[in-house]
Amino acid sequence: MKRPYQVDTYALSRQSAIFKMAVALAGISVAFALVFSSLARADDGKLKVVATTGMIADAARQVGAERVAVKALMGPGVDPHAYRQTRTDIVALAKADLVLWHGLYLEAQMEDFLVALGKRHQTVAVAEALPKDLLLSHADYADKYDPHVWMDPQRWAIVISTVSDALSSVKPDAKATFEANAARHLEDVTKLAAYAEKSLATVPAESRVLLTAHDAFNYFGEAYQFEVLGIQGISTESEAGLNRIRELVDVLVTRNISAVFIESSVSDRNIKALIEGAAAEGHAVTIGGELFSDAMGRDGTYEGTYLGMIDHNITVVTRALGGSAPERGMTGKLAASS
Amino acid sequence: MWTTFLDALLLQAGYNAALVAVGAALLGIAAGTSGTFLVLRKRALVSDAIAHATLPGIGLAFICMTALGGDGRNLAGLMLGSALTAAAGLLLVAWISRATRLSEDAAIGAVLSVFFGFGIVLLTLIQTMSSGRQAGLDGLLLGSTAGMLFQDGIIIAIGGALAVGAVFALRRPMTLVAFDADFAKASGWNVGHVDLAIMGLVLGVAVIGLKTAGLILIVAMLIIPAVAARFWTERTEHVVLGAGLFGGLSGYVGAALSASAPALPTGPVIVLVCAFLFVLSLLFAPIRGVLASLLRHRRFQVRVHRRQGLLALAHSEAVHDRMTLAVLRRDDLIRADGVATDIGRAQAAKALLDERRWEIVRQMQFAEGLKANFDGLTPIEGVLTKDELAEVDRRLGPLSIVGG
Amino acid sequence: MRETPVKVAAEDGRIVKPPTSDDSPLAVRGLTVSYGDKPAIFSVDTIVPQGSMMAIVGPNGAGKSTLLKAVLGIVKSLSGTVSIFGESLSEAQQRVAYVPQRASVDWDFPTRVIDVVLMGLYRKLGLLGWLTNHHRKTARACLERVGMVQFAERQIVQLSGGQQQRVFLARALAQDADLYLLDEPFAGVDAATEKAIIDVLKSLKSQNKTVVCVHHDLATVADYFDRVLLINVQKIAEGPVATSFTAENLQRTYGGRLAATHIDDLRLPAG
Questions:
Q1: pLDDT at B225 over 90
Q2: CA B253, B254, B260, B261: dihedral to nearest 10 degrees?
């Protein structure tokens, strides 16, 4: 009789054999599944493009149209200076056919990763294609540039062309389509630039001061002759000091500025503190509106596109500072202000 | 820069600077007093755990409020969320150290890192939420002191007053539990509840100060003032008051400093001022400070050498030790060639007499407790009464007079 | 777990406690405490009569301190009951005073000698009661009794071991209790302090208070105490010193760890 503690070696080895076969079968099926699924995915023909900011994604969609599937890592209200890639992002970036990022140290937390990615994947830093004489230098760092180039439609036009070239280089057979789409989009952008010039010119000279939460609007200021002041520096990572707030309260009071602006992707706390400080000096300042600085509006809305974003900014700034512009913007598509 | 600093100290540097100075001072007072008992109870690290455990609450509150259609950045909601998860973290730390064999600091470390990690995950998730408006949540990590609003000041004033009031009301059980928890228990106090009160106070201050100092810096405001105050006093009430004073001072001066020069972020500067006060206390506090104990040690050394030198002279032994020689010469007890002066001989004789008197005292029964005062240096006249001394001298026998 | 006292309706409808047979200062039945899975004390019974001075003796790890702590509710007991003057601990709290071991406290705490003694008055003062001169006088009187009044303003970190022990005793005196529980009050103190402490304890006994001490020095048991409880996780023996503090009981308590010569030195009654 077999005693309970005795091991039945024959039964065991038979069990082990069955186990091994089961594992092998499972492994083979998984392998098949993977191969088939990857084969299956590749045949809808669309170029997989992953962009970091929403503005770049919008450019890619306008240029690529139905030939591309574009995913943006940073949605509305997201601050690109502080954004850190998640694991899902990394997977998407690795699987993309083309990665479009801004460069000029906008995606500060992702910079090292994107540069490393560029060594083995197709990546293009679209803003770095701008000629250096068109760039404004960084207020704090001598060898760095201000990255907020999308604020000037004319500079952004160059970026759009770069996007078109990038798409064409990865998918040469669609080059003609891309260039046609880009040309069409650039027409709209030119219209936008003209609208900006016209509207902002109506703002009286003494009101031409744009005070926002951080220094995102230098290109706007340079393009349209506005003085631009930000509470925080070029990057939102720096903390605003009391000294800076006091400085700006003085500016508000002495220059008699009546409206300041909050940003969708930055906390409005500092602006509110500024307003309280001015009020304590007897000078009433209101919030002229919320501007889209580092991110666009909600997906699916007009403000969620590049044209809409800039249209909104121009219209809001013009109207708040005493100029005249249509309430619904250049194309009449802006959301009605509350 | 310094004129601006002075202006800021006098609240003349503009509304924002004045608001921040007063608000930070009030927060500092509340944090200093509340943190004292945590430090005395030797649980300073719990403040770190509480502060880090607020992060997931902020994330959860934001997600909930946004999902319900409201403003995700509503301050009341964020404070409530942070308080709830911090309380959960607290209870978890208490439960872990009670129910498992983990020591308390291991429990704190575990809870701190898990909660904080969960908080970061939530923040990352929020980062990708398409509803927007999530900007500024991570400002709660390091605070945005410069952008203090009037409503923040009100919250700090009311919350701080409540915290200080609670410290006053509970000062006796908290002191007792911090000093001798077993005795407190045996006296009928519920030690568990008192501990929860101590930690709950810290939680309250952390939540109040979240927007202003941020959760990483609020820990400094809770702990450093109490540690600095400890150097100056040996009475618990005074430590609490001193901590409140140091906390308030750091807030006020730090804010003024930050207003006086560009690129000085207010929150960190306040903490630096606090740390500076700590270093000052460490070095210069009388009795417990480093400098004071060095001086005391030095004085003691001199006295010992002086006495040893005198005894050697009395026994007509040669003195070789350099320090002893230096001390004797400095006091004119010995000439340059090593021969005792008149005063020196008189002092030496006195020292010898005291030695002999102490020998007698040791043999006698009456001065039990006073023997503890014999450190070789205290003059015996300061320890025994006149008639006791007379009795001792009677036993010694006749004395001969030495000059000087 | 303590049994909740059964309440009985008296004839006029009032709820009263049933008459107990045991109103002694301390009555312990079946007390068991364990740390983890190991029992520290197991099913200990003892009854301490009023006005007695009892020593609890046993080897290291015998559970002597644990017994005191379980009686006072400082550690949780697994089973058994404790009654103090016939009532539960929470009811009789004001009548018990505790002197913990000196080492259980960090003496580098910012407080003065007088403040420590005043802590003994905290439970009477409550949270917001005003500390008056009367309280300070009481505290100073307690310090006087232990010979420490000239140290009243001194920081406790500057005290010697014996002085610290006296301060703890003064604190317990300030509580004006009827039952005093002391944990190794004579450990590591100088001869003068030992004398001072035993004088205080004897004066307590003369006021018909009850004193229970965990005691470490077998040589002085017979001189200081009139009752003894020998314990080594379980109770070995209990009773008047004359009849219970015997060589045989000691051998049973110390499990043969006590050298025969040591017991001889104690010059105990045979039996």
A1: yes
A2: 150
Residue identified by tokens 């969708």 is A264
Give the predicted TM-score (pTM) of the model.
0.80
Residue B286: CB atoms within 10 A of its CB come to: 12
How high is the pLDDT of residue C215? 94
The mean pLDDT of A284-301, rounded to a whole number, is: 90
Q: Whole-angstrom Cα distance, residue B353 to residue B361?
A: 12
Which H or E run includes A47?
A: strand A47-51
Question: In this model, does residue B100 exceed pLDDT 80?
Answer: yes
Cβ contact C123–B187 (<8 Å): yes
Q: H or E stretch including A111?
A: helix A111-120
Q: Which residues of A touch B66 (CB under 8 A)?
A: none
State which amino acid sits at residue A1: M
**Mean pLDDT confidence for B258-268:** 82
Task: Write the CB contacts of A167 (distance below 8 Å, at least 6 apart in sequence).
Answer: A47, A49, A60, A63, A64, A68, A98, A174, A178
Task: Give the integer Cα–Cα distance in Å for C128 and B173.
Answer: 11
The DSSP bridge partners found for residue C33 are C41
**Residue pLDDT, tens place only, C64-78:** 999 999 999 999 999
C214 DSSP 8-state letter? E
**Counting Cβ atoms within 10 Å, is residue A260 exposed (0-12), middle (13-18) or buried (19+)?**
buried
Instruction: State whether residue A98 is helix, strand or coil.
Output: strand
Cα separation, B279 vs B274, in Å, equals 9
Q: Which two tokens stand for residue B278?
A: 């700590």
Question: Band of the pLDDT at C270, cuts 50, 70, 90?
Answer: low
User: Chains contacting B with at least 3 CB pairs below 8 Å?
Assistant: A, C
Calculate the average pLDDT of chain B.
86
Using pLDDT thresholds of 50, 70 and 90, give the confidence band for residue A36.
Answer: low
pLDDT of residue C19 exceeding 60: no
Residues of A in contact with B267 (CB under 8 A): 239
Cβ pair B58, B119 in contact under 8 A: yes
Tokens encoding A332: 């009449």
Is residue A100 a contact partner of residue A161, using CB atoms and an 8 Å limit?
Answer: no
- Kindly determine whether residue B128 and residue A266, on different chains, have CB atoms separated by under 8 Å: no
Kindly report the nearest CA distance between residue C233 and chain B, in angstroms. 22
For residue A211, give the H/E element and its range: strand A209-214
Do chain B and C touch: 3 or more Cβ pairs under 8 angstroms?
yes
Q: In the prediction, which pLDDT does B404 show?
A: 42
Which two structure tokens, joined as six digits, stand for A208? 């031409």
DSSP for residue B384: S
What stretch(es) of chain B map to CATH 1.10.3470.10? 2-285
Domain range B2-285, CATH class:
mainly alpha
**pLDDT reported for residue C45:** 92
Contact B40 C116 (CB under 8 A): no
User: In this predicted model, which residue has the larger pLDDT, A127 or B376?
Assistant: A127
Rg (CA), chain B: 31
**What ipTM, to 2 d.p.?**
0.88
Phi, psi of C54 (to 5 degrees): -110, 140
Query: Over 70: is that where the pLDDT of A12 sits?
Result: no
Q: Please, which pLDDT band fits residue C4 given cuts at 50, 70 and 90?
A: low
**Minimal Cα–Cα distance from B48 to chain A, Å?**
23
- What angle (nearest 5°) sits at the alpha carbon of residue A100, between those of residues A95 and A103? 130
pLDDT digits (tens, 9 = 90+) for A67-85: 899 999 998 878 898 888 8
> How far apart are the C-alpha atoms of B334 and B328, rounded to whole Å?
6
Tell me how far the alpha carbon of residue B103 is from its chain's centroid: 24
| CA-based nearest distance B368→chain C, Å | 7
Question: Does A5 score more than 60 pLDDT?
Answer: no
